[in-house]
Design goal:
The structure is a single chain. The protein is an alpha/beta fold and about 300 residues long. It has a domain at about 110-255: Rossmann fold (3-Layer(aba) Sandwich), CATH 3.40.50. The protein has twelve helices and eight strands. It has helices spanning about 10-15, 15-25, 40-50, 55-70, 80-95, 120-135, 150-160, 175-185, 205-220, 240-250, 270-280, 300-305; strands at about 110-115, 140-145, 165, 190-195, 225-235, 255-260, 280-285, 295. α5 (about 80-95) packs antiparallel against α12. The longest helix has 18 residues, at about 205-220. The structure holds guanosine-5'-triphosphate and magnesium ion (MG).
Length: about 300
C-alpha cells in the first residue's frame, strides 16, 4: 500500500520548503516583527529576497511597495513583515494576465514546450493524471521524436497511467505524429490531447517551423479544439530560466508557465520574477517526480506557503 498522499496545501508547502527555509533563515525573527524598515532591515530583506532568487527588479519593486505600505500604515499597530511580504508577493503574481486555463468544457490540445531536461515529459504525466482525476478522456502524443528514449519515456508513463500514447518511430516528423493523434482524438472523443514536443533550442528557426507546422495541422484537422501552449521551466535554474524563456518566447507563442522541480531548489522566488518579467500566468507548479506532484497555481497560496 502506498502511504497516503498529502493534500495539495501539504504538497505545495513541501515543494517550497527549501525556499521557505532560506527566507526564514535569512530573515529570522524579523518576519514576525512589526515592519519598521530601517536601513538595516531593508538590507536584510533585500539580501534574503535575492538569495531566494526573486531577482533584482522584482526585489526592488517589492521593497518599494512594502516601504510605501509601511509609510501609509497605522503607526499604533504596524503590520508584521511576514504578512506584508506575502500580500505584496501575491499582488505581483496576480498582476499577470489571467490564465485561459484548462477548465473549460470544450476539447483542448495542450502543447508542452521547453528546453531539454526542463521536465516536459514528467509534467505531461502529471497533467494527464490531473485531467483523468477530473473525469476527462486523455490522449498523449509523443511528438518529441528526436530520441527513441524520449518516446519510450512517454510510453511508460502512458502505461502507468492507463492512457493511450500515439507514437511513431524515432526520427519521424513530429507533425505527422500530431496528425495521427488528432484523428485518434476525434474518433475517441478525447477531451484533452497532450503533446510532448522536442526542446532543441540550438536552432530557433527549426523549432519555430516545427511548432508552426503543428499548429497548421491542428487548425486544419481539429478546429474545434482549443489550443494551449504551456512552457515548462526548470525552477532549479533560478534566474537563468528567464533568459531561457525569453529565447523560447521569441520562437513560440506561449499561454502560460509550468515551473518544474520546485522541490529541488531554494530558488523558488524565481516563480515571482519569471511571472512578472515575462508577464505570463503561472499555471502549475511541479513539486516532485511522481504523477501526483503537480499543484495548480494560486498567487495567494503560493505567497503564503513561501513565508509560512
Ligand atoms: N524533483 C523533481 N524532479 C522533476 C520534476 N519534474 C521533472 N523532474 C525530473 O527531471 C528530469 C527531467 O525530466 P523530463 O520530464 O524527462 O524532462 P524533459 O523536458 O522531457 O527532457 P527531454 O525529453 O530530455 O527534453 C527527470 O529526472 C524528472 O524525473 C519535479 O517537479 N521535481
Ligand atoms: Mg521529454
Amino acid at each position: 500500500m502506498e502511504p497516503p498522499k498529502p493534500g495539495l496545501w501539504g504538497r505545495l508547502r513541501g515543494g517550497l520548503a527549501r525556499t521557505q527555509e532560506r527566507l526564514s533563515e535569512r530573515l529570522g525573527s524579523l518576519l514576525d516583527l512589526p515592519a519598521t524598515l530601517d536601513a538595516a532591515t531593508l538590507e536584510e530583506l533585500e539580501e534574503a529576497l535575492l538569495a531566494a532568487d526573486l531577482g533584482v527588479p522584482t526585489t526592488t519593486l517589492l521593497i518599494e511597495r512594502i516601504r510605501e505600505r509601511v509609510r501609509r500604515s497605522d503607526v499604533e499597530r504596524p503590520e508584521r513583515l511576514r504578512g506584508l511580504l506575502a500580500e505584496e508577493i501575491a499582488r505581483i503574481l496576480a498582476e499577470t494576465p489571467a490564465p485561459a486555463g484548462l477548465g473549460g468544457p470544450e476539447p483542448a490540445i495542450v502543447l508542452v514546450v521547453g528546453v531539454n531536461g526542463a521536465g516536459k515529459t514528467t509534467s505531461i504525466a502529471k497533467l494527464a493524471r490531473r485531467e483523468l482525476a477530473a473525469g476527462r478522456r486523455v490522449l498523449l502524443a509523443a511528438a518529441d521524436t528526436f530520441r527513441a528514449a524520449a518516446i519510450e519515456q512517454l510510453a511508460l508513463w502512458g502505461e502507468r497511467l492507463g492512457v493511450e500514447v500515439v507514437r511513431q518511430a524515432a526520427g519521424s516528423d513530429p507533425a505527422a505524429v500530431v496528425f495521427d493523434a488528432l484523428q485518434a482524438a476525434k474518433a475517441r472523443r478525447v477531451d484533452r490531447l497532450i503533446v510532448d514536443t522536442a526542446g532543441r533550442l540550438h536552432n530557433k528557426e527549426h523549432l519555430m517551423a516545427e511548432l508552426a507546422k503543428i499548429r497548421r495541422i491542428i487548425a486544419r484537422e481539429a478546429a474545434a479544439f482549443r489550443v494551449e501552449t504551456v512552457l515548462v521551466l526548470d525552477a532549479t535554474t533560478g534566474q537563468n530560466a528567464l533568459a531561457q524563456a525569453r529565447a523560447f518566447l521569441a520562437a513560440a507563442e506561449v499561454d502560460g508557465l509550468l515551473l518544474s522541480k520546485l522541490d529541488g531548489t531554494a530558488k523558488g522566488g524565481m516563480v515571482v520574477a519569471v511571472a512578472r518579467e515575462l508577464n505570463l500566468p503561472v499555471l502549475y507548479l511541479g513539486v516532485g517526480e511522481t504523477a501526483d506532484d503537480l499543484v495548480d497555481f494560486e498567487p495567494r497560496e503560493f505567497a503564503t506557503a513561501l513565508l509560512a
